[in-house]
Amino acid sequence: MKVLLHTCCGPCASACVPRLKDGGHEVTMFYSNSNIDTREEFDKRAVEAKKLAEADSVEIAFDDYDHDRWLKEVAEGYETEPEKGRRCERCFRFNLERAARYAAENGYDAFTTSLSVSPHKPSALIFAAGEEKSSDTVKFLREDFKKKEGFKISVKRACELGLYRQSYCGCEFSRIRRCADMI
């Protein structure tokens, strides 16, 4: 099956790409992250995703960065939501809609996401968003990458490949929350 992997970052995808390939899938990474708070951080993570694609011998496609659109369509009115709350749910839908559209327009059989490798992301919300964006032409592949020690594998592989591992999800609200939680 030809699968598009929505890639939130290289470190998270580092456990997902091999698992999909081992499952017999032809994988293309799709770096789509308008939720990231600065262009500098977006570009830094894009470089790391490209390093992973090269290391794992898979194609990578890059979505346009449009943080202003993300703020308007996802975060506006939800700025004070806690992590794992309604803003995150809206963000999953935003990113997976873009992945589903790209997959449909480019002849993929299915799409999935590296978001599910994180222990900080509720897989049920990710799966609901993915299935909502599924269509007759492209299906959402429900893959919980945190299973079978996926997160631990992602940390190990990221270190082995020398990938930059960020300390927050990407949006300014997750950065603010993370700082508040550390005080």
Can you walk me through this structure?
This protein is of the alpha/beta class. The protein is built from seven helices and five strands; from the N terminus they run E-H-E-H-E-H-H-E-H-E-H-H. The chain is globular. 43% of the residues are buried. Mean pLDDT is 93; it is low at 178-183.
Q: What name goes with the CATH superfamily?
A: HUPs
Overall number of domains: 1
- CATH class label: Alpha Beta
Average pLDDT figure? 93
What topology, given as strand order, has the largest sheet? 3-2-1-4-5
Measure the end-to-end span: 46 Å
Question: What is the name of the CATH architecture?
Answer: 3-Layer(aba) Sandwich
CATH topology: Rossmann fold
Topology order in helix (H) and strand (E) letters: EHEHEHHEHEHH
Question: What's the total number of strands?
Answer: 5
Low-pLDDT residue spans: 178-183
